[in-house]
From TrEMBL:
GO MF entry, a single one: single-stranded DNA binding
A GO biological-process term: resolution of meiotic recombination intermediates
Protein name, UniProt field: MEIOB-like N-terminal domain-containing protein
Keywords noted in UniProt: DNA-binding, Meiosis
Keyword DNA-binding: yes
InterPro entries: MEIOB (IPR052469), NA-bd_OB-fold (IPR012340), OB_MEIOB_N (IPR056880)
Domain MEIOB-like N-terminal span(s) in chain numbering: 10-157
Family from the record: Belongs to the MEIOB family.
The organism of origin for this protein: Anopheles culicifacies
Superkingdom of this protein's organism: Eukaryota
Disulfide bond is among the record's keywords: no
Length: 480
């Protein structure tokens, strides 16, 4: 064997223009979706048979892996080859796999056009593998004693938290930053089921998954994943327990959600549970936020907004129109409307129950908190509390606002009755209580939360309701 054929082990830091015939051991920290295209077969020499048709098109493809072998060093490795070769690499290696890269070509990435569409790395060089060479290839690393050290590198953050942007700032920019990329540090709030959609241009079925992300500044932004690798990986993400540091997430404005969403770009690097001191505080915040609709309504009616400050008069139609806009996630309104639904003496749910420990709703025939890790799960009945949870419809000359919620202390104040007293009342007494408000014009103060990535419907929380003075209604009631 000649000296030019000897393969030596190199690290990313040791690679330069003169590096040849080496093997690199590294862990995959990012992987692009493969791209496929048609190309002509390589032309044959003059001594080869003319009977072979060289015009036959051959499907080819390209895929890029981003590799790390130390806390400091990263590099991109691009593989070009036949479609089945690229598919093999795509199916064989995932983020977190430790690989051997055998005899790749080294080139400077300073002026490489392909690097504009690849993740940002520390190395000024890039690696290339072409399937026309029978030597250069990527294989799984077999040295088991090395694996823990390399796998630990997957959690090394590509950027520091200071280089990330709060979700609220991205959302506030609206469609103005459509197509740009940002770094975000987020908690997985929800992992939605995989869905299939037919692509109009190709008439082919394509799978995607929506994952709802949150941070301390925003309750939820959807990120769409079209890659099969990401779809499989996201199945292992635990809501409110998995933290992601996403570098170069692409911003897309969604006409459906009427807000900003995120997507994976060819430059995107996603790090699961990065080694950062901010991770625990972010998880603690995620555990503390209201998660169910009833929790959100209770939070809104708990005094976060002083009802006396809600003086912007709106009709029902104006409230509907504003919920269709994209200016804010939440707004307040004073609506002079007639209460057309207040089913205090009927079959509708008026009183709900929740666990005193974790505030989780206890439904139907459940006798204990449904959360297995809560103390209330082991001590049923004694750890439940009742609260008003009333659905109200209000109507004015422009339409009806259905499904408004009046809960807890707000309902007690409006009805001048607590839950224990209400439960002891006869049906006749409940009917009399209902008719104190039903079909009377009231001054209804609301906090409205628009539908979002987290919630498919608008929430209307009544924080104050009084019988309106006719003179006040005449002076302030709007035509539209």
């Amino acid at each position: 064997m000649t000296s030019s054929e000897i393969t030596t082990a190199k690290t990313i830091a040791q690679i330069n223009d003169e590096t040849r015939n080496f093997i690199l051991v590294a862990v995959v920290i990012a992987k692009n979706d493969p791209r496929f295209f048609s190309g002509h077969a390589k032309s044959r020499g003059t001594l080869e048979s003319d009977s072979i048709d060289t015009s036959i098109e051959t499907a080819r493809g390209v895929i890029t892996f981003t590799l790390r072998d130390s806390e400091r060093d990263t590099i991109n490795c691009t593989v070009w080859g036949k479609a089945d070769t690229i598919t093999h690499y795509d199916n064989s290696f995932e983020i977190g796999d430790v690989v051997d890269v055998n005899r790749p070509q080294v080139s400077s990435s300073m002026f490489g056009r392909s690097e504009q569409y690849s993740p940002t790395v520390t190395s000024p060089y890039s690696l290339t593998i072409n399937d026309q060479s029978q030597i250069a290839q990527i294989t799984r690393h077999e040295e088991l004693q090395d694996a823990p050290r390399f796998k630990a590198l997957v959690q090394v953050p590509p950027v520091q938290p200071s280089a990330t942007i709060p979700l609220a700032d991205i959302v506030a920019s609206g469609s103005g930053c459509n197509g740009e990329t940002f770094n975000v540090l987020v908690v997985v709030r929800a992992v939605r089921a995989k869905r299939d959609i037919r692509i109009a241009r190709s008439n082919q079925m394509k799978s995607f998954r929506e994952v709802v992300l949150m941070d301390c500044s925003h309750s939820g932004v959807v990120m769409k994943f079209w890659s099969e690798s990401y779809i499989k990986w996201s199945e292992r993400w635990a809501p409110l327990k998995t933290v992601l540091l996403i570098v170069d997430a692409r911003v897309e404005y969604s006409d459906y959600y009427k807000t900003i969403c995120l997507a994976v770009d060819r430059k995107t690097i996603t790090t699961q549970d990065p080694n950062l001191p901010q991770l625990n505080s972010l998880l603690c915040y995620a555990q503390s936020i209201p998660k169910q609709d009833i929790d959100v309504v209770c939070s809104l009616s708990s005094g976060s907004v002083d009802p006396a400050t809600i003086n912007t008069v709106m009709t029902v139609q104006q409230i509907h129109d504003r919920t269709e806009g994209d200016l804010e996630d939440q707004f307040t309104a004073l609506c002079y409307a007639v209460i057309t639904r207040l089913d205090l003496d009927g079959p509708s749910r008026i009183v709900s129950e929740r666990c005193v420990h974790c505030r989780t709703l206890v439904r139907g025939q459940e006798i204990a908190c449904p959360k297995y890790d809560c103390a209330g799960h082991l001590t049923p009945n004694a750890t439940r509390e009742s609260f008003f949870d009333i659905t109200v419809d209000i109507t004015d000359h422009t339409g009806t606002l259905t499904g408004c919620r009046m809960v807890s202390r707000v309902a007690e104040t409006v009805l001048n009755c607590d839950v224990a007293t209400f439960k002891q009342q006869s049906d006749e007494q409940k009917t009399q209580l209902k008719w104190k408000f039903l079909l009377d014009r009231c001054a209804v103060r609301l906090i409205v939360k628009r539908r979002s990535a987290v919630r498919y419907q608008n929430l209307y929380s009544i924080v104050d309701c009084t019988i309106a003075d006719p003179a006040e209604v005449e002076a302030k009631l709007k035509v539209y």
